[in-house]
Amino acid sequence: MSTEPIRLGIVGLGAMGRRVLEVGLDHPRYAVTHAADLDPTTVARLQAAHPSVLFSTTPADVLEADVDAVYVATPPATHAALVVPALEGGKAVFCEKPLAVSAADAEAMMSASAGRPTAVNFALSDRLATRYVEQALADGLVGDVLGVEIRLHFPVWPRKFQADATWVAGREQGGFVREVFSHFAYLTDRLLGPLSVVQTRLDHRDGASEASAYGLMLAGDVPVVLTGSAGAPGPTTYEWILRGSGRSFLLRDWRELFVAEGHEWVPVELAGEEGSEYSRLSLFADLIAGRPSPELADFAAAQRVQRVVESFHEQR
Fold first, then answer.
1. Of 36, 42, 46, 85, whose Cβ has the fewest other Cβ atoms within 10 Å?
2. CB 220 within 8 A of CB 192
3. Residue 315, pLDDT score
4. Predicted pLDDT of residue 205
């Protein structure tokens, strides 16, 4: 096994790109050598803070650089134009979710990915809660799966950490169905199998992204229901509920897991590594070394999620 660090380039230095930059710089299996963003102010600020990295306002400078892997953290409509040439240039690619907006872009990325290490950064792919529920299902503790409920609410959209990403507020690439529901669609696909869409509805206000969303899907014969809203009073809500005849599970706020065997939710004490950009970069390094893991989402899973997510927008 090679002991040389993986030379990593980053395209897109918004919230997620900056996070991976910081994590990658501290990760012993990586050497972040190149990074690019279209905003010259962002580039200048980060160049001053990290002089060992070659920064640019031209993404091609990363795609054409002598790097082993590229992390793509740009708006989803731009993914294919960056991912495909990176793959064709012989690089491994770790891409932000959602994989794409259009079916044609997703298919182009899938075709280019053949034989190359590729992954998508779904935050729930290696979380302790995901692994715990997955094991409970495998052990038969859930019993018959009766349904899944996904509940999302955002009093303000975009969320504060994404306020500078204007595209997140728009219909064409943004909205909470793409940005947040996609994570829980992935989780459901991972644990119960691919989703088929029965009915969807999106409501918009003032030409912006969705104000409310409803979806009825099936994972096999298990009903999966999404209810989501943005722009109304009330606390921010991230909830995924698995209803079983033996046990039910509630995942709240990405990390908090509860179990019910009777009438009350009881916290589950989770022990071990939580799951983070650091751990997913480790899994991506393993993938590059030829050791894939089910705890890292691949392009095929991301394409299935993309189809479900975009079915909401096709009904508008």
1. 85
2. yes
3. 60
4. 79
User: How far is residue 185's CA from residue 179's CA, in Å, rounded to a whole number?
Assistant: 11
Position 8, amino acid: L
Distance between CA atoms of residues 297 and 188, nearest Å: 13
At 97-156, the pLDDT tens digits run: 999 999 999 999 999 999 999 999 999 999 999 999 999 999 999 999 999 999 999 999
pTM of the model: 0.96
Fold of 6-122+277-295: Rossmann fold (3.40.50)
Cβ atoms 210, 133 nearer than 8 A: no
> Is the preceding peptide bond at 233 cis, omega within 30 degrees of 0?
no
In this predicted model, what pLDDT tens digit does every residue of 29-61 receive, in sequence order? 999 999 999 999 999 999 999 999 999 999 999
Q: Cα(68)–Cα(70) distance, rounded to whole angstroms?
A: 7
Question: What CATH number does domain 128-274+305-314 carry, 3.40.50.150, 3.60.21.10, 3.30.360.10, 3.90.650.10?
Answer: 3.30.360.10
CA gap 217, 189 in Å, rounded? 11
Where do the structural domains in the chain lie, given as residue ranges?
6-122+277-295, 128-274+305-314
Contact 127, 274 (CB under 8 A): yes
Interatomic CA distance for residues 178 and 25, integer angstroms = 29
DSSP string, 55-67: EES-THHHHTSS-
